Amino acid sequence: MAVSGWFGRKRKDGSPAEGVPDGIAVKCSSCSQILFVRDFERNQKVCTKCGHHHRLNAHERLEITVDEDSFEEIDAVLQSADPLLFPEYREKLHKAKNTSTSSEAVITGTATVEGFPVVIGIADFTFMGGSMGSVVGEKIARAIEVGIEKRFPVIMFTASGGARMQEGLLSLMQMAKTSAAVGRLGTNGIPFIVVLTDPTTGGTYASYSCLGDVILAEPGAIIGFAGRRVGNQEVGVKLPDNFQTSEFQLEHGMIDRIVPRKDLPLALKTLLEFFALSAVKESVIAGN
Length: 288
Ligand SMILES: [Zn+2]
Fold this sequence. Notes:
By secondary structure, the chain is an alpha/beta fold.
């Protein structure tokens, strides 16, 4: 399993990885502890003092999730258009392509995870806040179709502020499109595993993210349709401090389990083993 490599090295343009200042130390955004960059990256950007899980970009996530050299990206060439001629959208897209490690807010492809073939999608919050526009929805729907065709389980790592407002209704349509695609997965008996990471909100939360056969989440992630601030304003009462976090969602039966980042490979392996065995069992019962 490829855990090392990306961590500790800089981006191709020479800038440091996201969230890490160009130096030897970084401050935890939760407890303010000063951490050596080397230790911080070795610990997969989890604070060694308080355990806060800092955000990963899609390529960092990919590197700690899939088996080495197993990832084959699909639909890498799909690029967002500007269908509504929304002011400054093209400039924002151009900037995002230059500052993010991804060419859109999700990367998708086939890979093996702990030896099991899967289709995997990883949202990239560094690209316009992981917002779901037409291309993001299309890439997720197409990835799911590949899962159905190859009969591979589909794993989605989410990280998104919601629908992409610059595409208006077209981005809201992606909620229905991705949800319908997940429905086809279910009809075809293909497992769908979702891992919610910080943050997963808005239209992304209210569509495919909530439809996993198994829904895992990283500790302390903001998860919900609207955040606590919006909730406070709308409801008019002070909401609990942990409102719309992984812990709150687990407490209220919305997710299945909170899994620390270092334990995710084992959790995924366990699930993939279970689904593989179930498929064999069903095949035997069906007499195939
Ligand atoms: Zn900390």
